[in-house]
Amino acid sequence: MAALSRQDGPAHYASRTIITDAALVPTAESRHFRRPLGFRNALVQAIMAGNTSVFNAPAAAILRRCAPEARARDIESHDWWAFQVTSGAGAAFIHDPRPALFYRQHARSVMGRNDTAAAMSQRIAMLLAGIMAAGWLPTMRPWMLSDRSCCRKTA
Question: Is the pTM for the entire model greater than 0.70?
């Protein structure tokens, strides 16, 4: 959290996780992203995991201003949305390479991990079949094309 407090503008922290099975037995660590993070990443990758995300006061203020529109549009992927909003506002990103918590996978996980070939294939198949496109993309597209004045930095 010290890294967040050193930022003058909006900042967004997230860390890696330790992926576990239903019995909390560790199976792997989440991916380590080594490239710089920013808006270009946010358009195509949900890198900043919501279960580890922490925001400094300026970033939290931006998200609070944008939340009503996100709720009205029923945005499902809140962590990806937060990454897009904060990156669009020019936030600094801190992606901690050290895992901070267990990410438990179980039979009723809605989306679950995305770092295996099977998981990536499943998401691509969902996108091509229109499942993700029917739910997430139509709710995000109007927001991405809108004014988004809620995301602008304030003095």
Answer: yes
